[in-house]
Every structure is written in C-alpha cells, then in structure tokens.
Amino acid sequence: EPEVTQTPSHQVTQMGQEVILRCVPISNHLYFYWYRQILGQKVEFLVSFYNNEISEKSEIFDDQFSVERPDGSNFTLKIRSTKLEDSAMYFCASGREGYRGSGETQYFGPGTRLLVL
Amino acid sequence: DQQVKQNSPSLSVQEGRISILNCDYTNSMFDYFLWYKKYPAEGPTFLISISSIKDKNEDGRFTVFLNKSAKHLSLHIVPSQPGDSAVYFCAASPNTGNQFYFGTGTSLTVIP
Asked: In terms of DSSP H, where are the helices of chain A?
C-alpha cells in the first residue's frame, strides 16, 4: 500500500540554523500539506500546496518557513533560522483531491521530530 | 485559539465495552469533521468522517455522531478491542478551505 514517507525521522539542530525536512508524498497525489505537533499539544496546520504554489497557510507559517516541490517527487519544508519553539513533530500529508468529500483526502507520514537546542 | 477541543486527555475501557470519545468545536463555519487514530511513532491515520448534512455515520465498529446545535461530536467504538488503544484526534474543516483543525487528542486504553 502506498504511503507517505519522511526523512529524517529525528533531527537535532542549533538555534539559528537552517533545517530542511523532506517528504515523499504518494505518487498520484496532487495536494500536499505540512502540520506540526508540539509535544503534548494539538496537531496544527502549517501550509497546503497545490499546482506548485501555496494554496493556504496558517499564522504559524511566517517568513522563516518555505516549502518546495523541487523534483516532482519530494516535498520539502525549510525553516531558515530555527528557534527553540520550532521544536516539534512535523507531519507531511498528501491527498488526491482538494475537496473535502472524504477524510481520505489526507494521508499522513510518520513525522520528523525536530529538536532545536 | 482552541477551535476544536477534546476535554478528556485519556480514557480507559474494558475490552468488549463501548468507548465514547468526545469533541467540541466553536467555529460555526466547520462543516466537515473527521476522526484520526495515531499510534506512537506513526502519523495520524484517517478513521471516519462526517459531513454537517448528516448527524450519524457508521463504519463497522466505529460510529460518529454530530450534534450541530451543541457543536459537539462523538466517536463510539463498540466493541472495543485492545488494538484500538491509541490516541484519537478529532479534526474539523471549514467550508472555506482544506485545512484541518485538530483537537489535542484523547489517549484510549482498552484493557484486555
């Protein structure tokens, strides 16, 4: 069964450093998402991406964040200058369709746990 | 800004009994609701959904009930099985977009 994969599974970085989190969505999916979950808190939407551009983003997704689909298979989240409060689990998700007719529209990856020291 | 709330962080149920997980929301623009299950070290997995035009949706052992006037939904699992032990997230989507707003999750433990 196809699945969303994410690398690395864990990343430790120093405050102020740039990190790139990588995701390989399911191959025939067209919609891509990033979410994060700070330890003990809710899963929060960051951004959605369709047709090579951002379609929605939350207040969390400020100028420090960017997304890219560089090669037609990977979907990356870059944090330019990490802060302590960026420490969280970051989930990538992908979906076949953008409409909300079915909860199957978003399949989640296993997550990357980012720790900023 | 807690638009979706799951007020019970944990729940323990005996195997074979019913598990009831609750979720409340505040945004009247939400019109699509989902439940996700999450095991440790894995991403959330879709479980069941309901549109605001319905008040009940059933899929095997899982039933979701929606009370729009109370802005409340619940997930019923019957009979509960030990493999159901996981964190359950309620999520909601407004009619203006595709993003989901998640609750903080309820950790369900089904005791054999």
From this structure: none
CB-CB: which of B41, B49, B102 is closest to A110? B41
Strand partners, B23: B73
Distance CA B40, CA B13 (A): 19
Report residue A101's pLDDT band, with 50, 70 and 90 as the boundaries.
low
Give the number of A-B residue pairs with CB atoms closer than 8 Å.
60
Q: Do residue A43 and residue B45 have CB atoms under 8 angstroms apart?
A: no
pLDDT tens across A49-67, in order? 988 899 889 999 999 999 9
Instruction: From chain A, pick out residues whose CB is under 8 angstroms from the CB of B4.
Output: 42
Compute the half-sphere exposure of residue A90: CA atoms within 13 Å on the CB side of its CA. 31
Q: DSSP per residue over A25-75, as a string?
A: --TT--EEEEEEE-TTS-EEEEEEEETTEEEEE-TT--TTEEEE--SSS-E
Rounded Cα distance between A6 and A76, Å, is 9
Q: What are phi and psi of B82, to 5 degrees?
A: -55, -35
CB-nearest to A42 from B41, B46, B103 is B103
Question: If you measure CA to CA, which chain A residue comes closest to B95?
Answer: A100
